[in-house]
C-alpha cells in the first residue's frame, strides 16, 4: 500500500485483480461491521469493475460471511430512464445480487426511475428525503477518464451543487438526465473506496492524487471522513511517479 496525501492506494496487475480485491475487501469489511452489531450502509456504484465485483459477491452466495439481509444498499447516481432499462446502475447490480444474497427489499434504496410518476427534480428530492442524514459506512465510486465521479462532471453545474441529491441535466455522458449525490453528500461517508482501471484513467488518476482542483476533476474533491481507499490497476497507475508504484508493477 502507498499513501498519497492521506489517501491509501493499493496497486493491482489487472482490472480483474481490482474486482477480486474489491469483492474480498468489501465482504470482510461488511462482516466486520456486522460483528460490531451495526447495520452497514453501503453506497454502490456502476461500471465495469463494480459489476465484476458484484458477480464475485453473488458467486459467494450463502458461503458469504456477510448477512446481506442486514445491509442497506444505496446508489451514488442513476440514469433517469425506465426501471427495467439496462443502463440503470441499480438493475445491473440487483440482477446479480438479489437472486444470490437474500437481500431485504426494505433495505434496497433505489433512486426513482423515469417511469415511476416523478419528474427529474421530484425524483432527486424524493431520494434526498429517503437518504436524510444517513452517512454511508462505505461509498464505492468509479472515476471517468475526465475525473468525474457519480454524475458530477468537470466544469459542469453538477460540480457546484449543494444539498445531498441533485437533478443532473445535459450530462456530458449519455443519457443526459440523471440523479446524483453531491460531492458534499459523498464526503459524509466514513469510507470512500475508488475502483479504477484502464490506461484511459491514468491522467485523471495522477492529477487527482497529486492535487488537482475539484472543479476541474471532481474526484479530487472526494474524501471519506475516516478513510479514502484507491484500488487501481497497473494501466491506470501508468502515469504516476515511479517512486509511488511498487517495484513489481512499474
Automatic annotation (TrEMBL):
Residues 15-230 form the Glucosamine/galactosamine-6-phosphate isomerase domain. GO terms for molecular function: 6-phosphogluconolactonase activity. It comes from the Bacteria. The keyword Hydrolase applies. SUPFAM superfamilies: NagB/RpiA/CoA transferase-like. GO terms for biological process: carbohydrate metabolic process; pentose-phosphate shunt. The keyword Hydrolase applies. Pathway: Carbohydrate degradation; pentose phosphate pathway; D-ribulose 5-phosphate from D-glucose 6-phosphate (oxidative stage): step 2/3. Keywords: Hydrolase. Hydrolysis of 6-phosphogluconolactone to 6-phosphogluconate. Belongs to the glucosamine/galactosamine-6-phosphate isomerase family. 6-phosphogluconolactonase subfamily. This is 6-phosphogluconolactonase. It comes from uncultured Propionibacteriaceae bacterium.
Amino acid at each position: 500500500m502507498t499513501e498519497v496525501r492521506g489517501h491509501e492506494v493499493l496497486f493491482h496487475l489487472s482490472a480483474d485483480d481490482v474486482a477480486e480485491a474489491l469483492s474480498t475487501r468489501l465482504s470482510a469489511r461488511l462482516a466486520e461491521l456486522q460483528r460490531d452489531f451495526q447495520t452497514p450502509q453501503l453506497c454502490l456504484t456502476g461500471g465495469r469493475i463494480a459489476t465484476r465485483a458484484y458477480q464475485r459477491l453473488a458467486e459467494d452466495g450463502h458461503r458469504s460471511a456477510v448477512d446481506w439481509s442486514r445491509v442497506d444498499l444505496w446508489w451514488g447516481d442513476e440514469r433517469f430512464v425506465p426501471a427495467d432499462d439496462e443502463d440503470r446502475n441499480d438493475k445491473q447490480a440487483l440482477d446479480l445480487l438479489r437472486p444470490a444474497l437474500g437481500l431485504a427489499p426494505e433495505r434496497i434504496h433505489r433512486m426513482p426511475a423515469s417511469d415511476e410518476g416523478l419528474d427529474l427534480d421530484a425524483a432527486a428530492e424524493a431520494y434526498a428525503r429517503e437518504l436524510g442524514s444517513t452517512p454511508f459506512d462505505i461509498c464505492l465510486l468509479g472515476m471517468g477518464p475526465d475525473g468525474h465521479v457519480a454524475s458530477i462532471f468537470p466544469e459542469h453545474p453538477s460540480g457546484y451543487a449543494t444539498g445531498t441529491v441533485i437533478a443532473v441535466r445535459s450530462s456530458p455522458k449519455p443519457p443526459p438526465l440523471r440523479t446524483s449525490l453531491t460531492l458534499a453528500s459523498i464526503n459524509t461517508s466514513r469510507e470512500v473506496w475508488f475502483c479504477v482501471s484502464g490506461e484511459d484513467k491514468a491522467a485523471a488518476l495522477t492529477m487527482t492524487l497529486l492535487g488537482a482542483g475539484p472543479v476541474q476533476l471532481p474526484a479530487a474533491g472526494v474524501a471519506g471522513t475516516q478513510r479514502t481507499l484507491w484500488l487501481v490497476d497497473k494501466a491506470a497507475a501508468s502515469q504516476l511517479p515511479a517512486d509511488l508504484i511498487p517495484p513489481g508493477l512499474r
